[in-house]
Amino acid sequence: MSRDRPGSPVQSDRRATRVTADPLGKAMLAHQRDEPGRLVYRDGADVQDGNVAAFYFSTPESWGPETVECLERLADREPILDVGCGAGKHLLWWADRDVEAVGVDASPNAIRAARERGLEEGRLFVGDMFDLPIETGAVGAVHAVGTQIGLGRSLAGIRTVLAEFARVTADDGRAVVDNYDPTRLDDGFFGYRSDPRTGIAHRCFHLEFERETPDGDRRRELGRTLQFLLCSPARLREATIGTPWCVTATRRANGDAYYRAVLERR
Ligand SMILES: C[S@@+](CC[C@H](N)C(=O)[O-])C[C@H]1O[C@@H](n2cnc3c(N)ncnc32)[C@H](O)[C@@H]1O
């Protein structure tokens, strides 16, 4: 399924997204290459470790049943598009089961890391989830897990992302997206910003990747401030209004604030 092969879902005339700072992607690539470096999330004086190994390179043995259930639910809708695929851990799961899937990520270094993990070059693309480099109706399913839909920043922004997911999927398409439910969070949650509306909150932080060069200098790469909209499942349903999507299931791990939602085309 390369760019040039007939029937490819990928639009060959799109330019790669320009990224200036890419601390998350650099951290993934450094981990993949066994190079030193530390990723942190920073919100003012609050700092949290980026947990690159535990999160972006986790393997199926450590995943909960709800994760695998969502991957399985998309497997019969191949080809699958993994939006914000990172270093490709979910793409590897489908590849191991001969399920056809392609990955798009805004980070060129994340895509490099995914390639170096053995994923096929022609199935990995740098691109933006708001303007996917994918042909209309070319995929059967979209998977966007890592709370990146929250980067829509508002319910209207999430609706825009969902409309773009609808554009690239077939009429019987399915999607899995995720978020944190603010009705189960408080201001102890990293980067939390409240909102007067029930079921809505925000999360702000930026990423930093710090490493030491071979000649002993310390280098720190700072990403832009990320602003996420956190929304409850009920608010996610509100965001689907005006799109062809309908939320058909939500899955939580151990009843916690994090959830995945399954969306089907109406
Ligand atoms: C939390 S990570 C999740 C990565 C992967 N899905 C996983 O579970 O390991 C979010 C990913 O979304 C990507 N991302 C952020 N904004 C994006 C955008 N506008 N378009 C495409 N990818 C984006 C980031 O580069 C990052 O790799």
Structural features:
globular; 266 residues; Rossmann fold; 7 helices; 6-stranded antiparallel sheet; binds S-adenosylmethionine; 13 strands; alpha/beta; disordered N terminus
Walk me through the structure:
Helices cover 24% and strands 31% of the residues. The chain has 266 residues and is of the alpha/beta class. Strand 6 (139-144), helix 6 (155-168) and strand 7 form a beta-alpha-beta unit. The chain has seven helices and 13 strands. Helix 6 packs across helix 7 (233-240). It has a single domain, classed as Rossmann fold, CATH 3.40.50.150. The strands form two sheets. It has a seven-stranded mixed beta sheet, with helices on both faces. Strands 1, 2, 8, 9, 10 and 11 form a six-stranded antiparallel beta sheet that branches. S-adenosylmethionine binds at residues 24, 56, 83-86, 89, 104-107, 110, 128-130, 145-146, 148, 151.
Give the structure's gist in a few sentences.
By secondary structure, this protein is of the alpha/beta class. 24% of the residues lie in helices and 31% in strands. The two termini are 28 Å apart.
